[in-house]
Amino acid sequence: QVQLVESGGGWVQTGGSLRLSCAASGRGFMSYAVGWFRQAPGRERELVAGISWNSGKIFYSDSVKGRFTISRDNAKSTGYLHMNSLKPEDTAVYYCALELNGVAALEHDEPEYWGLGTQVTVSS
After folding, report:
1. 55-113 pLDDT, tens digit each
2. If I label 15, which of 1, 9, 46, 123 is the partner at 20 to 30 A Cα–Cα?
3. What is the 3-state secondary structure (H, E, C) of 46-84?
4. Taking a C-beta distance cutoff of 8 angstroms, is the pair 95, 111 a contact?
5. Which helix (H) or strand (E) holds 20?
């Protein structure tokens, strides 16, 4: 069993930056791809970034490509999402998740583990 705790969310102005962290407890973090999802009120959940177990494969949605950077530190069992040039449309609850079947599976499988989410609010 793995538990995930996100941190680093908050309020920023347009153009600002935040770094989200996803700390995993339990065993097996290195076996999973890490995904970052977000959900804004009234909108569907969106996969914004994913990273394979060894950081060899990385995915970004078109909406964040060039502004967000995903990374992981397996020694610390932690995933990260660096968010730059934030826009009001980035406002959402951000969730991290672990997917056993790799980065590609993040787009269509239900990940095995989810965090509780962290709110990101970007003001105009």
Report:
1. 999 999 999 999 999 999 999 999 999 999 999 999 999 999 999 999 999 999 999 99
2. 46
3. EEEEEECCCCCCEEECCCCCCCEEEEEEHHHCEEEEEEC
4. no
5. strand 18-26
Which residue bears the tokens 């930056």? 17
**What is the C-alpha separation between 68 and 19, in angstroms, rounded?**
9
Owner of token pair 């934030």: 86
- CA 78/CA 43 separation, integer angstroms: 27
